[in-house]
Predict the 3D structure of the following.
Amino acid sequence: MTFIKPYLIRLSHCDATGQVFYPNYFHIFNALVEDWFYEAIEVPFDGFLMERGLSLPTVKLETTFSAPCRMGEIVDFWLTVTHMGRSSLRFSMGVSKDGVDRVRMHRVAVCVSQKTHAAVALPQDVREKIQAFMVG
Amino acid sequence: MTFIKPYLIRLSHCDATGQVFYPNYFHIFNALVEDWFYEAIEVPFDGFLMERGLSLPTVKLETTFSAPCRMGEIVDFWLTVTHMGRSSLRFSMGVSKDGVDRVRMHRVAVCVSQKTHAAVALPQDVREKIQAFMVG
Amino acid sequence: MTFIKPYLIRLSHCDATGQVFYPNYFHIFNALVEDWFYEAIEVPFDGFLMERGLSLPTVKLETTFSAPCRMGEIVDFWLTVTHMGRSSLRFSMGVSKDGVDRVRMHRVAVCVSQKTHAAVALPQDVREKIQAFMVG
Amino acid sequence: MTFIKPYLIRLSHCDATGQVFYPNYFHIFNALVEDWFYEAIEVPFDGFLMERGLSLPTVKLETTFSAPCRMGEIVDFWLTVTHMGRSSLRFSMGVSKDGVDRVRMHRVAVCVSQKTHAAVALPQDVREKIQAFMVG
């Protein structure tokens, strides 16, 4: 199953060339993960971090940029979960418009305790909701 | 040859976990590339973009995050050029402290005309300066 | 007339204290102005900048921060136009939730030609649409 | 006494007009305050936040932008402390080059406990160091 959401490319995403400055793609991808938490698996991301004391840092990223995005465009950001381990999650993510890829990313993230900085198992309720999302 | 520069991890780089928010690493890596232009190969990066009408967009990134950076740390960002094609550049970049890797990145960038959006050859003077940097 | 839009406070807006890092309020206020262009006065902001060669830089800001915003909150950002001159616009803007002010801002902006960097008259069609917005 | 530090205007500070996007001035002003902590009054800003559990949120800002800054410029950012209360600090800050003002800001900040969110007295050692800075 794929979570898809359109985002407006804003002035603040673009650099002096008028196109998205590549670090800002990761800010929007992070917004997408937040929105996936709130809207798709319905786990409040703020509670995940601030109340449960967990975080989901990135350990590996592979990103291919095949076409630029320009200010004023509304483009689709999409996310799938390709693997869930005890504490790790693999995401495929991308940006596309009219069926044409602009950006494609593989991201591995790990659930970590903010206290110990060590990997911990994903909470059972979160696992179940991600599992349900994966099967669609 | 390796270009190394220490950067202070600032409040604005960190998120609510007190550690660098991963998109902000790419902002600092971009600052490193700018500083490499100005200080190492001595090509003004602003002239490269604004006067020559070129840009150096990223086409591929592979990044591994092995340990976090915290606010107040001064860490080394480093850059080498591993390959120069007609219009492409391959960089190896990383973040380390006391000889221990925090982040490691491979980045492929391509020299592009801002007018045509097509790949163009790196200007001859820039090629020569990068070549001189690569041999050290 | 007031343009009001709810925005989610994201991880990327907050610093290590878990609250919005004040420079990020201005990023969201700028998103609000863009959304006001697209949605309220129906002037495409990208065309205003990229095709007409105009911009709307800020010349004066007065901002009062009376209560913090935290990650995960959805808060209302609002905007009114209090005065329109030949080339200048005065905005009152703010952030509130449940009728309580969090941030309040007065902003003066001027329509400028990107070529000459000089103030120019607001285009007639934009004036008329802003006038219509002001009377509601 | 005035704390002055030159900063390079980077690609990441500028928007599609090639000039500093105004919210990014506040990011640099915040970097200036951090550098003033570390270098001028020699109070580690990370310890102030992370170990002492304090923060210094902004309660009031007045900013005038009189001339733009462009990518590649190195401009002076400066800071003075105009008043120190029990828990409040008033800063005058600005950006200038060759003696000409680009930006001028008055900022009121208050020392706050991150636990109670209430204003608290500035720690005595910090007061003394700021007092010493003020008299020069």
